[in-house]
């Protein structure tokens, strides 16, 4: 049971052709799907007292897929596919001769270098979205998300096909989400980012993170209280998070440079494009139990990415490095802000992959 099945399962209740309710979710003609960035299943369960409303909802644990990263999971929400098929294989990946930052749709390390013209979002992710399929079936489809996401590369790539409503905070998010369900057949996807941001900066489970969780719990409850009778509120996440322990710094370890042409990904999962097959053995020996180091072929054979289409193959790189435990592989010079964070995600631990799927029919 994965994040890729969430929207098709909900659209099944809206009679959208080709959508099956594989997750056995309650059927409703009006659905609000709230995605809380960074709300891992294990984090919610460990801190249930700070989220009494969310903890009271019916639900189960599902998987975010791999990598357990925001851009990848949002693409799965928007396409109904896993990363190996939709091709948004992480926070950053090489494609078209660039290392693309999929969140900002810019050259990695240079947010001012907009790549929407050269790496056209609808080409980078060409599959029809679940939102387009729903709209074609007559469903009123809305996306309620931060104003800055309007027309962004990632929105165009994976969330196209919906009416976009930009928000500035909790208040207009709650009002807009409820208002989006005024039609007889309506689906609203609402996105909240701040819990993830707080987790990255202060660490998941920190005092700041717990207070933000309380705010998120109130947000979900207030959305539910405003929905038309018979509507379904469904809450999920894109990944969990761990607090970093040991930091391995690629930029200060010359042994790791040999044979590596490009390093992409993020601190919990890295993609290496290499010029020498010896990179695998060197990295395995150096990292030991701190990481799983697989060739692309091994990772694909192991099913890490689900079915893998040609569009995703080169983006995965030649070598995949998934960190284990609480170790992170940072770049102190090339990614200074990223390297300084406390909370991370992207790898294959249950703390990062397990996400909640919660629901209530109001």
Summarize the structure.
With 362 residues, the protein is α/β, with parallel strands linked by helices. It is globular. It has helices spanning 6-12, 41-46, 52-56, 70-79, 83-86, 121-124, 130-136, 153-158, 170-179, 194-202, 207-226, 278-287, 296-301, 310-316, 336-339, 350-353; strands spanning 30-36, 58-63, 92-95, 98-101, 106-107, 110-114, 140-146, 163-167, 186-192, 232-236, 242-243, 247-249, 260-266, 269-274, 291-295, 319-323, 328-330, 343-344, 354-361.
Topology:
Layout: H1 6-12, E1 30-36, H2 41-46, H3 52-56, E2 58-63, H4 70-79, H5 83-86, E3 92-95, E4 98-101, E5 106-107, E6 110-114, H6 121-124, H7 130-136, E7 140-146, H8 153-158, E8 163-167, H9 170-179, E9 186-192, H10 194-202, H11 207-226, E10 232-236, E11 242-243, E12 247-249, E13 260-266, E14 269-274, H12 278-287, E15 291-295, H13 296-301, H14 310-316, E16 319-323, E17 328-330, H15 336-339, E18 343-344, H16 350-353, E19 354-361
Parallel strand pairs: 1-9, 1-10, 7-8, 7-9, 12-17
Antiparallel strand pairs: 2-19, 3-4, 4-5, 5-6, 10-19, 11-18, 13-14, 14-16, 15-16
Helix pairs in contact: 9-11, 10-11
